[in-house]
Amino acid sequence: MIYIDPPYNTGSDGFVYQDDRKFTPAELALLANIDEDEAARILDFTDKGSNSHSAWLTFMYPRLYIARELLKDDGVIFISIDDNEAAQLKLLCDEVFGEGNFVAQLPWRKEQLNQMCLLVFRRIMNGYLYSQNLANLLQQLKARNDAIMRLMISPIVLGVPTT
User: Fold this and answer.
1) pLDDT of residue 121
2) InterPro entries, per this entry (predicted)?
């Protein structure tokens, strides 16, 4: 099992990704060999935040790839993340581990709320659980018949009757 708690790309932890790529339409047109109107449309798109996650993804990809290579055939990786990069992380993990090896998304509350209810959504964390090979993992889990495993993994996932 591998556990990763990567930086959440919030800018508040001192670990900031330099993903600010500012070009004029003329500079981008020259670099990308496109006309200035197309360059202006691209810059407008990226200025709206559509490209703000690319450096974080570039940072994460090699780490996830190496983690995948280190996992045994029945191994799993658990990655915790907040809402800043949760959607991007899910897509990246689908690419690296394969959509078919997705096991579960595990949300949990970060801390007890002591402020207005409006903050509840910012206090939810996510965990993604992927396997190296889901078929091997399920076979291994079915072979175990202990109470802890049954509490951790849904009986439906294991193919165990619930009644």
Assistant:
1) 53
2) DNA_methylase_N4/N6, DNA_methylase_N6_adenine_CS, SAM-dependent_MTases_sf
The whole-number pLDDT of residue 78 equals 94
For residue 104, what are its two tokens?
Answer: 């579960």
Please report how many Cα atoms fall inside a 13 Å half-sphere around the Cα of residue 68, on the Cβ side. 19
Q: What is the amino acid identity at position 46?
A: T
What is the average pLDDT value for the chain, to the nearest integer? 75
Confidence (pLDDT) at 19: 46
CA distance 15 to 20: 14
Q: Which tokens in the block code for residue 81?
A: 């993340």
User: At which residue do the structure tokens 């202990």 appear?
Assistant: 146
Query: What mean pLDDT do residues 28-43 have?
Result: 80
The per-residue DSSP string of 29-71 comes to: HHHHT--HHHHHHHHHHIIIIITTTHHHHHHHHHHHHHHHHHS
Residues 6+ apart with CB under 8 A from 120: 113
Report the residue count for the chain. Answer: 163
